[in-house]
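Thread: Modeling a multi-component assembly for a lab meeting

Hi all, long-time lurker, first post. My supervisor asked me to bring a structural picture of a complex we are working on to next week's group meeting, and I have zero experience with this. I have the sequence lines for every component (503 residues in total). Could someone generate the structure of the whole assembly? Inputs are pasted exactly as I received them:
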Amino acid sequence: MSRLILSRRRLLHSGLTAAAALPLAGCDSFDFLRERSNPVRRFLMSANGLTYRAQRLLQSADQLATEFSASDIRQGQKPNGSVNPDTPEYLSLKQTNFADYVLEVDGLVERPMRFPLDAIRNMPARTQITRHDCVEGWSTIAKWHGVPLKLILDQVGIRPAARYVMFHCFDAPTKSLSGLDFYYESIDLIDARHPQTILAYAMNDTPLPVAHGAPLRVRVERQLGYKMAKYIRRIELISDFSQFRDGQGSYWADRGYEWYAGI
Amino acid sequence: MDRQRQGRLIRRQRPATRITHWIWAICLFFLLLSGLQIFNAHPALYLGNESGFAYDNEIFSFEGFPSWLTIPSTRDLATGRVVHFFFAWLFVANLLLWLAASLRNRHLRKDLIPSRRDIEALPQDIRDHARLHLVHSVRYSPLQKLAYGGVLFVLFPLIILTGLSMSPGMNAVMPWFPELFGGRQTARTIHFAVMVLFVAFFAVHMAMILLAGPLNELRSIITGRYRLSPRTPRLEQTHV
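Re: Modeling a multi-component assembly
Sure thing. I ran the full set together rather than chain by chain. Output:
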């Protein structure tokens, strides 16, 4: 009996202590971490550099993402992000079904070049059935068909100073004071030369639909979906992305997401 | 309480055990609440490699966790990921540190791996716990060993491996990895389920601390000192 009373008193006392500590769990206490320039956030973000280096250490350069079989395609690809760009330049290209589309490749290259869509379609192509993993958490499997980016890069010749491939896009998901915020994305040369990194112009055996980035979208199969820029206008070889927009190397990286999205 | 009736004060928890325990506590706090933020970006769970949009392989979905349960409190997947991956690295580093220390100081062999004697004592220990008759012994009781061992050797590896199974970069390194769990989306579902088990463990852990005497229990995991039940034999535990 005395033991019971004791544990009841203990319970009461400890319960009160626990209740007093509860407001600590109110998570707006950590909302300062949302500030892009907060030093604690910047420190936490350094873990992404560790992830990048660790994964590059473990991966061999040509190690492939899992490829699936045709029977694994059980649904259409889920459209996400921009699905119908309305910038004048894009609308006029779309009107003629991208017949006048020309991909510009320049920057730190030996020979800046312009590739009409037909020329790209006539280059050797690769087909792959892969799983698209969105940063939101969902996955879908689809068949992608296009020219390996490496073949394009071999034609223009990468200058030694180049470290990244930057994709400039037609779509502008948001507007800001400085005008339209065009989508852009960058990858390192390891991913750029990876055999599965293709400029896709077909998906599930049909020409790439507008909702999925027509006429060209890049596939970067060892990273999350937001790295796979759609509506590619121009490809630029660069040594450093700090002078582009907010300097984080991509539309979403400027908005607080990791530049390296292998996780 | 009468001094005469108190048990001896012993050094129970080693510094490595105490330090890693609290680093885990901090890690799991941030991992849980940032994890719920990440989950809210797509609050549905599936079985297989894909998320079925045109067919049904969904096993659970709801409108998402309330803002007071997420870090940060507003919808902010980017910040949730920053917090989650930082503490995921710390969590794994801490596990390795704990493993190295526990092999070296024999915490693993002496305190955690159940012996034949533990198995024999298990039914009695279950009866004791059911009657809330909690004995403060030199060593963990059989049920404690099972609970801590389950967390350390089953739940910890499982949550790390299912987490890595969601990484497209790691999938390229180990393609069989997500398949081991039944596909990326199943791995995500298991990751979530293990989180629920952690929360359940935490609830029982807190309840047991309150029932067993929170001051003594907290002291042992902060300072290492622990007061035994009266008349506890010097060397090995017995169940009174």
